[in-house]
């Protein structure tokens, strides 16, 4: 019986060697090791043997089963290994994901390029500023609501005797006086910077960017302002776009305007994305003589214009982004960022 068992084991090992896939192996396992398999059948037959023979034959059966099982497992592991993806060094590699600059930074670069082409010089000023530059020198009365601490962020530090409290710049107009102090006319400045206001909802960010243009020279008139705005509108938004000025009020410009641009979707005809064909861009006006004087410039000899718009809103208009929420721009959601 021992020889029969050993023969059977050798048969099994031969079939395992010839097996060409996992299914073959499973078939062999059932055939030899299954409950009613050929090796287990011998356990039934040893019942009639004496104790010593039972032990010997039982040992041979168990040893044969163990060997067959080990062989099957080894071969299985070999099949699994060889079915793994084969590395083919001739296939071009997969590039790692590459990022790009944030869309707001793209907009800032584009806006500064547009203005630099017509002689504006990009300047930078403090982000943490004195009240004097943000409000006082810009003709804001002491009790103006923008100075209220529900609107502006105040630094937790002692006010300066001359310049007043320290604030986070609520608008880029604070750069106007800084520029007049830095240099004398002719001035053609573009200031693109972070601004902070105590606002946060689907149309307002607590931190946002504005770009501010300031031109001061002899004989600067409203015509120069309108020409500059039209130039920007076509250079940034496209040839067909037009601007219009709507009378408004700012403390630091006189006269003051809100600037509108024709809607890029309906081209000024009127649609659900605009107000009768127009979209609001930002503020502008002729520099108030008090502001020129505060900046040390002779307001009888020189005049100027200024404008200040939100970068995020301007960029969203350009891309015709109809986000329900301006905060999406800063959400860092790559599904949004990848599109620009
Ligand atoms: C001003 O800040 C004036 N300094 C603009 C100006 C400059 C007028 C020079 C005249 C001459 P206003 O508060 O309207 O104006 O803001 C201008 C633009 O900034 C808005 O049209 C809007 O595009 C953007 N803006 C203002 N507040 C926020 C905010 N919380 N989040 C995002 N964008 C904002």
Descriptive account of the structure:
The structure is a single chain. The mean pLDDT is 91. Helix 1 runs antiparallel to helix 2 (22-33), helix 1 (2-18) packs parallel to helix 4 (51-83) and helix 2 runs antiparallel to helix 4. This protein is 38% helix and 19% strand. Strands 1-4-5-9-8-7-6 form a seven-stranded mixed sheet, sandwiched between helices. It has a two-stranded antiparallel sheet with strand order 2-3. It is of the alpha+beta class. The two termini are 80 Å apart. It has eleven helices and nine strands. A hairpin with a 2-residue loop joins strand 6 and strand 7 (253-262). It is rod-shaped. Adenosine-5'-[phenylalaninyl-phosphate] is lined by residues 171, 173, 197, 199, 204-205, 208, 210, 212, 250, 253, 282-285, 306-310, 312-313.
Main sheet summary: 7 strands, mixed
Count of helical regions: 11
Q: What's the number of extended β-strand segments?
A: 9
Give the strand order, joined by hyphens, for the main sheet: 1-4-5-9-8-7-6
What percentage of residues falls in helices of 4 or more residues? 25-40%
Unreliable stretches: none
One letter per element, helices H and strands E, the order comes to HHHHHEEHEHEEHEEEHEHH
Average pLDDT confidence is: 91
Terminal CA distance? 80 Å
The distinct bound ligands, ions and cofactors come out as: adenosine-5'-[phenylalaninyl-phosphate]
* Rg calculated over all Cα atoms: 40 Å
Share of residues in strands: 15-25%
Structural class: alpha+beta
State the shape.
rod-shaped
């Amino acid at each position: 019986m021992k020889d029969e068992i050993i023969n059977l084991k050798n048969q099994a090992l031969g079939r395992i060697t010839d097996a060409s896939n996992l299914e073959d192996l499973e078939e062999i396992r059932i055939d030899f090791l299954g409950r009613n398999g050929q090796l287990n059948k011998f356990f039934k037959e040893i019942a009639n043997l004496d104790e010593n023979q039972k032990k010997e034959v039982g040992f041979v059966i168990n040893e044969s089963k163990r060997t067959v099982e080990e062989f099957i497992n080894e071969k299985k592991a070999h099949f699994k290994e060889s079915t793994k993806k084969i590395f083919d060094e001739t296939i071009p590699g997969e590039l790692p994901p590459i990022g790009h600059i944030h869309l707001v930074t793209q907009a800032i670069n584009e806006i500064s390029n547009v203005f630099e082409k017509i002689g504006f010089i990009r300047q930078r000023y403090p982000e943490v500023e004195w009240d004097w530059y943000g409000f006082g020198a810009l003709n804001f009365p002491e009790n103006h609501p923008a100075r209220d601490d529900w609107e502006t962020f105040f630094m937790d530090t002692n006010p300066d005797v001359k310049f007043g409290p320290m604030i986070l710049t609520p608008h880029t107009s604070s750069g106007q006086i800084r520029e007049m102090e830095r240099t004398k006319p002719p001035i053609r400045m573009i200031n693109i910077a972070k601004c902070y206001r105590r606002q946060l909802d689907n149309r307002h960010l607590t931190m946002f960017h504005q770009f501010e243009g300031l031109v001061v020279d002899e004989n600067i008139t409203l015509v120069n302002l309108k020409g500059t705005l039209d130039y920007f509108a076509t250079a940034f938004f496209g040839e067909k776009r037009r601007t219009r000025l709507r009378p408004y009020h700012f403390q630091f410009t006189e006269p003051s305007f809100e600037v509108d641009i024709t809607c890029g979707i309906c081209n000024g005809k009127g649609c659900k994305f605009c107000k009768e064909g127009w979209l609001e861009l930002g503020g502008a006006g002729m520099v108030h003589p008090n502001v020129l004087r505060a900046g040390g410039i002779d307001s009888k000899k020189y005049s100027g214009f200024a404008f200040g718009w939100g970068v995020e809103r301007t960029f969203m208009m350009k891309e015709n982004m109809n986000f329900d929420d301006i905060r999406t721009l800063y959400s860092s959601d790559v599904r949004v960022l990848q599109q620009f």
